[in-house]
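Q: Structure for this?
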Amino acid sequence: MEPEKFYYDNKIVRNFGIATVIWGIAGMTVGLLLAIELCYPGANISRYSTFGRIRPLHTNAVIFAFVGNAIFMGVYYSLQRLLKARMFSDKLSAIHFWGWQLIIISALITLPLGITTSHEYAELEWPIDIAITVIWIVFGINMFGTIFKRRERHLYVAIWFYIATFVTIAVLHIVNSAEIPVTFWKSYMIYAGVQDALVQWWYGHNAVAFFLTTPYLGMMYYFLPKMANRPIYSYKLSILHFWALIFIYIWAGPHHLLYTTLPGWAQSLGVAFSIMLIAPSWGGMINGLLTLRGAWDKVRDDVVLKFMVVGLTAYGMATFEGPMLSLKHINAIAHFSDWIIAHVHVGALGWNGFLTFAILYWLIPRIYKTELYSKKLASFHFWIGTLGILFYVIPLYWAGFTQGLMLREFTPEGTLKYSFLETVLRIIPMWVTRGLGGGLYLTGVVVMAYNLTRTALQGKLVANEAAQAMPLEPLKKTENENSWHRRLERKPIQFMIAALLVILIGSFVELMPTLTIASNIPTIASVKPYTPLELQGRDVYIREGCMGCHSQTVRPFRSETERYGQYSKAGEFVYDHPFLWGSERKGPDLARIGSKYPNAWHYNHLMDPRSMSPGSIMPDYDWLITDDLDTTTMAAKINAMRKIGVPYPAGYEKTANQDLDKQAKVIAADLTENKIKVSSRKEIIAVIAYLQRLGTDIKADKTTSK
Amino acid sequence: MSILYFLIGCSVVLALIFLCAFFWAQRSGQNDDLYTPSIRILLDDDDENDTEK
């Protein structure tokens, strides 16, 4: 047999690399702006850049634009070399690249406009969700096509990680994006309340697992041995921890919902699997670090390896901390606090960021056939980046402890010692330091961009890198050749389709009961669907991203029931499409805000929060007073809600706007009595109506029925 | 909480897919040699191609 000559596609790798750097800088700059807004609310200069609206922009940009493009860069580079084949189709590669960038740009436009589903890390509205599905499938076809035409029979462990990433993200994205369109840019989640919360965190946690972890582990298994020029410490361990990791990760999601109304056994299941995750996670970290055993002199000299070592260490810390945070007693203090923000940034800045930088520094000079422009600048980047991480996370751990403990403190007389605002004001200095840390980290990335640009300019891109390998030998016949499964295994594409069919059938069988049989959540007789005005107000609340800072679920602790009111019940959320429990408290919980303050208080507070709560860090929402509420979509909204099980009477969509006017006039009249002149058509009226409704249903009637 | 059964179903199906993949890997000899693959990936460097020219 003759060796075949072929070419690796380096251009697509380079393109994804450029996108990684550009979106990385963009996403981190938005993060820095967010950090500044928290310390100086005056920095919320426009409605398009308030904390609530651009928080999802930051998370999406960093996860899907920065890390996403870095994944594709790493996968497209390593997959070709591991399989000894060019990517399956240059056309699909190009569609994948440009499609993904268009999705990012659409996020960049829609999120500041307030177009959001409110599901964390899945905020993009339904048309973009469809585009993501299409592009992800293009990526899958391209990857499996390459696997199919490979010249190396053995699939190196990195490829297994890539396959798991593709399959799982596809399933997660589709399940979590089950939404019913209202207009082109508005949809409601099909699931409601606690069920929606579970879907969201099943997705959210596994997005961390299968977007931020498995592809990066795969890349680590390819790039680290290459960088150190020594084999991975234990190939056996890599195989073992791969299978363990992907089997365990998928069950850990409920640890995001501890002490909520999620059934206790589901919470415990999440905790148990989270603890189990330590073993396979550390398997990866240990395997990476031990690869460098006896080669630490290389680490001293090589900045690329330095990045890898800190990245792996950060991975080890984050994956130890995660299971600890899922312990109920620790979670009680840490949840909703800055501790979680610190935790995710150890992972994002340390693990994802540093691995990405290492790969960029290693790969760009190689595909440009040159040396890195400046090792000094790269070294500077390493140190300022490491310092940045420390300045970022340490103050936030401190802030998380401080606030978590302050919120639970009682005076000897048995009343709460601190108001929520006092706890926020106490940690603002920590937030300032965090902003500084973020700034240092971002500076490093900008320096890297300059360094890589100079590197590219001094070299010349080898767009098509020549390589040769023997074609794949046909498999030897084995005795059980004729079993159907055996034959299926030879055909990866058919195998994929068969697997997908199985998954679809399974999904439908499981989905049917949820759509047809009444839910077994205990319903509360007094809990009624939102009125049209409240529904509109809720949508404004979602548009402004209020759930980015305000949770809507009271946990069953004395410190919380004293502060907010009685703890939340599952039956209260049955009409919440989507749920709005949130995941952090930069401001107090709002689950029981209804009828706590007069309408006029809310009006003044939304217009200028500091007039009601001196020192508040909430942005002004003055456009709610000047903008008219859009009621043209009312009928569509009622119809959509009815379709997903909210019991609005038949034909109600025709009269909904009359009810809306009536309720709005009552609120406007009440405001007029308090010397506030405002038209009943303004958005603020709807927001006040929604806020005044929150948590009031069960005050009227406490009886629960099955 | 019917969604729990749906999600558990999804997770189980996903786990089954992985299980099938695992059995395929075992049976097709992917894991027979747990040493050379780690060395092999180091050997495809471009220097090698250069020398062959």
